[in-house]
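User: I've been going back and forth on whether these two constructs are worth ordering. Before I decide, could you fold them both?

Assistant: Sure. I'll take them in the order you sent them. The first construct and its structure tokens:
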Amino acid sequence: MEIINYEPLPQGYIFIQPRKEITEQPDIKTWLESEAFFRLMTFIQNLNQSVVNKKISDKFFVSETAQKIVDSLNSISAWVDEIPPLPTPQRFGNKAFRDWIARLEQNAKTIHEKILPPEWHKANIELVPYFVGSFGHGTRIDYGSGHELSFVAWLCCLNEIGIFGQMDHTALVLRVFVKYLEVVRGLQRVYLLEPAGSHGVWGLDDYQFLSYYWGSAQLRDQRRINPKSILSEDMVNTYAEEYMYFSSIKYINEVKKGPFHEHSPILYDISSVINWTKINSGLLKMYVDEALKKFPVVQHFVFGSFLPYRPAQNPHIIITPESTEATPTRITAKTREIF
């Protein structure tokens, strides 16, 4: 796939407050044909290409800004120690998470001012909503792939204004996104966040999706580590530090009980695919079908000038929405057709 380089926006650019546009099911069609969808899909696929056959421990360019983001993620992760979960039993998540989210909202502007050069502080009006929406919903005390999408949209916006470029893409995945996964998994564990929009056993994962897509790209040309390796606890533990796909499987093994094929049948079924290349391409199709086409996932997504709701001007993404109706994935011919 062609790598697209974005030109920095002019200094006189007018930023706007992002707002929700997807309010009912018919809006999904407009979303799938929007400039925002095109830019996000292009960005997601560019990041995928940037980590092909790369391990987390590999040496690659990490800019000062990328490192500042990692440092900021470390800082907000530490708030968990200052905002412990409430000791009283609670049915759906721990309400202390609302205090954590409230602190995030209060500090989001300052965090951005530490990350961005002064001339781009005026972009905070567009950037902050994506960042704040990346870690879960304080009222519902949940987290899901829609929040993950919000974080990637935040990175995409930074890419749009020229803060990042093609040379940063590997670090955005293997440093920034890997750290983000560490933070949100900590929140899930400590505050017992409910899965937002989960399909239960019929979903790929209760919380994440892109860790599998980009994680499979890391393994694309691997021959020694085959897809069935995820069924071996020893293999998972051995490679979890280097490959996101395996770290995601390890996390599932830690938080779920029972046989893997029972609590994660989709991942179990995918393990029978012949190679990582097919898994990688199949997961992109599944991401569109199971996340981006789903109203419950994208109904809270916001649109601004960086990710506009207007029709795409020149779309040339790999995945073209053939239908706006997303159909559930099951361990049937549909799953095998995708892969």
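The second construct, handled the same way:
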Amino acid sequence: MALVIDPQYAKLIEETNGTSGGGITDTTAIRNWANASVSAAAQAVPWPEGMQQSTHSASSALEIQRFAPQAHDPGRAVVFVFGGGMISGSVESSRGFVAALAHTSRSQVFAPQYRIAPEHPFPAAVDDALAAVEWLQANAQAFGVDPARIVVFGQSAGGGVAAGMALRARDRGLSPPLAGQCLRYPMLDDRTTMADSDPRWKYWTWSVAANDMGWKCYLGGLEKWERTDENISCYAAPARAKELHGLPPTFIGVGSLDLFKDENLDYAARLVKADVGVEFHLYPGMPHGFDGPHGFAGVPPMKLGKEMWEDEARWIMKF
């Protein structure tokens, strides 16, 4: 059976000779490429009318940006964990995406500037994400938030950090627990690889080489062959978790051409087996970052990217 390629994406590749960073194996180069791609795409997102942004401090080392849309459900809140392959990204570079999520989901969104690798390997990012949730719960009254209605949202690497944080929150007995976790093509498994013969290679916007570099930096320099379930925490690589019972309701969306497709499918299936409520969406013929689109600044957003935004917003508004 032929590989499904979304017509809009096929045309985009033909017109732009899109860049994936696949040949980059230097951390700084990957960071610069990813930051430039995400920032350009986020800046192209229209700023919602009436959106208010303010800065808050959860601690001396953790800054949180609050995005409050003109119309929102005051009780619900989302904690946004930005993407960047564990080694890049910032709230500022994702600012347009965060504001768009607040607008479409009619929710206050709180985005922590979590620490990234290699300067700050695991557990720094997970620690910061959980600290943001705990800070929001402690200050819920000041923002009109119900501490039982907090959803964590994570994009790409941020999805992996969010999923790891959800596991830790469950194990630590966070009270009240997270209302839900919305994971956009999350980076969950440090063991992911792909055969050279896989037909998806030419369509990737996030490559095996870049992915391996991100994981190596995040996991303190450990090579793939050095890692085991004994020396890699499931809070770092959620796909390694043995027990998924007790996690919050989960949304996972991923494109069929994404490097993370298989690990996302597997994690969703395991959550279902663990009696966790799951809504899973596979977007046919779409690559990693098709919501941006990642790596293709200056072009119109794709139809299925808009559909994913709408699916996520509808799901978040259940809480």
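Notes on the second construct follow. The beta strands are 52-59, 62-68, 77-81, 108-112, 150-155, 180-184, 250-255, 278-283. The chain has a mean pLDDT of 92.
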